[in-house]
Amino acid sequence: ESLDQGLEKTKEGFLGKIARAVAGKSTVDAEVLDNLEEALVSADVGIETTVEIIERIEARVARDKYISTSELNSILQQEIENILVDAPADTTYSNFDLPAGKKPFVLMVVGVNGVGKTTTIGKLAHHFTQAGKKVMLGAADTFRAAAVDQLTIWSDRAGVPIVKREMGSDPASVAFDAVNSAVAKDIDVLIIDTAGRLHTKTHLMEELSKIKRVIQKVIPDAPHDVLLVLDGSTGQNAIEQAKHFTAATDVTGLVITKLDGTAKGGVVLAIAHQFKIPVKFIGVGERVEDLLVFDKHEFADSLFN
Ligand code: GDP
């Protein structure tokens, strides 16, 4: 399965660290908890999130008096699931379905260059098309010619229309054209790519707000989802980017890519916990099939089993 394969490196690192944390111990005592704390931090789970997990386990130890180290994995798995925020609409994308009554469903995609934004949009276009939806792409990243070219390649591959203009055009006017065209063509889901320059916070904020405003001229409750794409292999950098983007705009979902290339998939926990924004998709490879709808139970399960 592509989830298990994609998380293999993370799982190996994670379980290895936990095994070392409990080595030679039969019960979970203060020393085991210290070791465990170190293990989680070094797996990129993040200090705050680690502390919360440890506190939850401490509370269990205090309550149950005796917890054997062999029980620790399943307890950890449960607490990790508890830590992963509930998606307000966990089922929004299960089987790449879309909520009824929102047509076109407008998905705005944000994130810095190189994180896998274009690839994610291409994968989404593929999956929604496979699920029988009419998809359109909007190339509102008019800053990089390469971005529009790449997106065009993905639109050809998925066989879906793309609305684009020459480089340097006003991103908001491309978004406006795209929304109008999507309405006229009876499109189910419009995916809008945006420029990911971290120029200045105000600049980013203004550009994203302007795009939103023009979309709302046509569809008042759109965009229906604002997905921030983060590269899971970049650890602390991904967290910095999440801070930057959540300060600039209302991010409603996260996509964490490149989890296949890293042993540091623990960052998913840190990000989901710290920002209280649901992780909606994860990327575990370069092929279209390697974009998965995030399921916290499956995720936690594949880390331990
Ligand atoms: P953008 O600049 O954010 O649009 O990034 P791209 O979509 O062009 O992706 C940058 C590179 O990351 C490309 O080589 C992609 O194939 C690769 N990539 C994207 N997502 C994943 C993923 O989940 N796993 C792996 N291994 N590579 C990915």
Automatic annotation (TrEMBL):
Functional note: Involved in targeting and insertion of nascent membrane proteins into the cytoplasmic membrane. Acts as a receptor for the complex formed by the signal recognition particle (SRP) and the ribosome-nascent chain (RNC).
Entry's localization field: Cell membrane; Cytoplasm
Membrane topology, from the record: Peripheral membrane protein
Enzyme Commission identifier(s): 3.6.5.4
UniProt-recorded name of the protein: Signal recognition particle receptor FtsY
Family: Belongs to the GTP-binding SRP family. FtsY subfamily.
Higher taxonomy: Bacteria, Pseudomonadati, Bacteroidota, Chitinophagia, Chitinophagales
Keyword line: Cell membrane, Cytoplasm, GTP-binding, Hydrolase, Membrane, Nucleotide-binding, Receptor
Gene name tied to this protein: ftsY
Cellular compartments per GO CC: cytoplasm; plasma membrane
Record InterPro entries: AAA+_ATPase, P-loop_NTPase, Signal_recog_particl_SRP54_hlx, SR_rcpt_FtsY, SRP/SRP_N, SRP54_GTPase_dom, SRP54_N_sf
Catalysed reactions listed for this entry: GTP + H2O = GDP + phosphate + H(+)
Annotated binding of GTP, by residue: 111-118, 193-197, 257-260
Quaternary context: Part of the signal recognition particle protein translocation system, which is composed of SRP and FtsY.
Annotated GO MF terms: GTP binding; GTPase activity; signal recognition particle binding
Residues in SRP54-type proteins GTP-binding domain copies: 278-291
The organism of origin for this protein: Lacibacter luteus
GO biological process, one term: SRP-dependent cotranslational protein targeting to membrane
SMART domains, A to Z: AAA, SRP54, SRP54_N
Gene3D superfamilies, per the entry: P-loop containing nucleotide triphosphate hydrolases, Signal recognition particle SRP54, nucleotide-binding domain
SUPFAM superfamilies cross-referenced by the UniProt entry: Domain of the SRP/SRP receptor G-proteins (SSF47364), P-loop containing nucleoside triphosphate hydrolases (SSF52540)
Domain of life: Bacteria
